[in-house]
Design goal:
The chain has 434 residues and is an alpha/beta fold. The chain contains 13 helices and 19 strands. It has a six-stranded parallel beta sheet, sandwiched between helices. A five-stranded mixed barrel has the order 15-16-17-19-18. A three-stranded parallel beta sheet has the order 7-10-11, sandwiched between helices. α8 links the parallel β10 and β11 (224-228). It is globular and about 60 Å long.
Length: 434
């Protein structure tokens, strides 16, 4: 049977897709590049924002018409599956099975039951070892870095967040298991890994997260280590020291702020004040100047005033984030924030988001301009030049680099090369091969 997996959402979802693909491949199924060529389509979903949910239901509508033309199995997994569970069958009766985020290993069984003609197959139960996938099962995409799960779930209770519902409480992989997977990846040719978790720096799999970074960095042949994503309350001085001093840990930190207003942060139940967030950034010391900082913002949270939003802009300028991800507040089913009065007009929310993103674009351009004239290592992320003649690469600071290598030059995929930065925009750096 040929299968196709469509994935929405974060790196955790991307890696779940690799695990699901590996499970099916181990059963003798064949992966194909499009739903039109597949006999099984699996939608690996996100539910953190309403827009992501709409995309899933739109695709389900298209697949309903497809099922009327030919035999086709349709399954839904990921966060929307865990959130909606049996309600998905009511809204889209043509779904054959629903698989929860904490039951991924049950996929072959669910597919077999659906193939046998059983209707509305579902497993959204919690399996304690769900995150302990044997590395050999994972069917990795053709990327320059490898994703490695170290923890799943979250023990924080932010009022707007669906993650504790869709991913459960924190579970941590033993550090020996993580190290074994990284060693195996390096033996297969990977030189960069990204450690994943909903709250990666709360890791407690036999050592602290900072200690895990140090141990992973000792793997011979590994060049770069990234991690996503962190919570400010778990950002320690020990972790800051490793970030600044360990040459294998890239000079990039994503630390979500969400709002620059203490009033809003309290309603979000983020557990810190703006001053405490800034104090944690201060742990980086002089190393801050070498780091690229990224963050998240939610605009238009219930009760956000003009003053609250101006506070956010002030913090944005004070920190001068190199980049940020910003979104209008999206109410999610079952979250405590639904009880808050949300009467701010959408036009006001949209105007605030536009202002914030415009200011961030200016800051990002300024950040990128600081690279002009520098020679930096970048990793090649394409197998050949684009139609424009440049190669796509990535710096340790997570800067997208358009690299000119000259006619006829073949650059090795996944390898580090030296690049001289010649151009800066809000979206990428232009560079020449050294």
């Amino acid at each position: 049977m040929k299968f196709h997996i469509q994935t929405w959402g974060c790196q955790m979802n991307d890696h779940d897709g690799e695990k699901l693909s590996g499970l099916l491949s181990a059963e003798g199924f064949e992966a194909v590049d499009s739903a039109e060529d597949a006999e099984l389509v699996l939608l690996n979903t996100c539910s953190i924002r309403e827009k992501a949910v709409h995309k899933v239901y739109s695709e389900l509508g298209r697949l309903r018409e497809e099922k009327q033309r030919r035999p086709l199995l349709v399954g839904v997994t990921g966060c929307l599956a865990q959130q909606e569970q049996a309600a998905l069958f009511k809204r889209a009766p043509h779904i054959d099975f629903v698989l929860g985020t904490m039951a991924l290993k049950q996929l072959p069984r669910l597919v077999a039951e659906a193939q046998a003609g059983k209707a509305r197959v579902m497993d959204t139960g919690e399996y304690p070892d769900n995150h302990l996938f044997p590395p050999a099962v994972t069917r990795r995409r053709d990327t320059a870095k490898a994703l490695v799960t170290i923890t799943e779930g979250c023990n924080h209770a932010c009022t707007y967040c669906i993650v504790p519902t869709t991913r459960g409480a924190e579970r941590h992989r033993p550090y020996e298991d993580v190290l074994a997977e990284v060693r195996g990846l390096v033996s297969r040719g990977y030189r960069e890994v990204e450690l994943l978790g909903q709250n990666v720096n709360s890791y407690a799999g036999g050592c602290t997260f900072a200690e895990l970074l140090e141990r992973v960095s000792e793997v011979e042949g590994l060049e770069w280590i990234r991690f996503t994503t962190s919570h400010p309350m778990n950002f320690t001085k020990e972790l800051a020291r490793v970030l600044v001093t360990n040459p294998k840990v890239v000079p990039f930190l994503h630390l979500p702020l969400q709002s620059g207003s203490d009033r809003v942060l309290k309603r979000m139940l983020r557990e810190y004040t703006v001053a405490e967030y800034l104090e944690r950034l201060g742990y980086l010391g002089e190393g801050r100047a070498r780091m690229a900082l990224s963050t998240d913002f939610i605009v238009g949270f219930p009760g956000e005033t003009d003053e609250d939003f101006e506070d956010t802009l002030r913090v944005l300028d004070e920190v001068a984030f190199d980049s940020s991800f910003s979104f209008i507040y999206s109410p999610r089913p079952g979250t405590p924030s639904l009880r808050l009065k949300d009467d701010l007009p959408m036009a006001v929310k949209s105007e605030r988001l536009t202002r914030l993103q415009q200011r961030q674009a200016e800051l990002t351009r300024a950040s990128n301009e600081r690279f002009l004239g520098r020679e930096i290592p970048v990793r090649i992320e394409t197998h050949g030049p684009t139609e424009h003649g440049w190669w796509l690469a990535r710096s340790g600071e997570w800067k997208t680099v358009h690299l000119a290598a000259g006619p006829g030059r073949d650059l090795p995929f996944g390898e580090l090369v030296q690049a001289r930065i010649t151009q800066a925009s809000p979206h990428f750096l232009g560079a020449e091969l050294v």
